[in-house]
Amino acid sequence: MEDGQFHTSFSKETWATFKAHLRPGPIQMLNLIRLRARAEYPDGRASTGAEAYRIYSDLSAPVFQALDGKIIWRGGHELTMVGPQSETWDIAFIAEYPSVQVFLDMMRNETYRDAMKHRQAGVLDSRLVRFASRENGLSFAD
């Protein structure tokens, strides 16, 4: 956490920029998640961050799958080679959506929006980075 802040959702400005960049074709979203030891629900219910995130995942998966979203990579943190050693992640994955519009549709889905309260309760810090596909190559710069 280089800037001293935790991040659990995007700003209105970032959301507006995301929506303004509608383009055809799939998008990939890199998700890096650091969970809370204890979830922070507004009603004070007892839960771990992992339990709250699992509820979010279980509730949101049918919406994600119905929109033809898929997880194209998932991994577990082993070692930070470059960057702050304190920046570790409990969950890391890349989700692919058929289009920007599909991601927007998911975010507007009532079931998904209801599931988000569990994500917010369980997540301490996160990164969500949008990428565009490029052709594979034989070197790092291709």
Task: Give an account of the 3D structure.
The chain is α+β, with helices and mostly antiparallel strands. It has one domain (27-132): Alpha-Beta Plaits (2-Layer Sandwich), CATH 3.30.70.100. The chain contains 4 helices and 4 strands, in the order αβαββααβ. It has helices at residues 12-20, 49-66, 100-108, 110-122, and strands at residues 27-35, 70-75, 91-97, 123-132. It has a 4-stranded antiparallel beta sheet. Helix 2 packs antiparallel against helix 4 (110-122). It is globular and about 50 Å long. The two termini are 30 Å apart.
**Overall helicity:** 25-40%
Find the CATH topology: Alpha-Beta Plaits
CATH class: Alpha Beta
The number of distinct structural domains comes to: 1
SSE order in H/E notation? Answer: HEHEEHHE
CATH architecture: 2-Layer Sandwich
Q: Sketch the major β-sheet.
A: 4 strands, antiparallel
Secondary-structure class:
alpha+beta
Strand arrangement in the largest pleated sheet: 2-3-1-4
> What share of the residues does DSSP label as strand, in percent?
15-25%
Task: Work out the number of β strands.
Answer: 4
Q: What is the overall shape? A: globular
- Separation, N- and C-terminal Cα atoms: 30 Å
Low-confidence runs of at least 5 consecutive residues: none
Evaluate the radius of gyration.
16 Å
Q: Roughly what is the average pLDDT, rounded to an integer?
A: 91
Q: So how many helices?
A: 4
Please provide a brief summary of the model.
By secondary structure, the chain is α+β, with helices and mostly antiparallel strands. Helix content is 35%, strand content 23%.
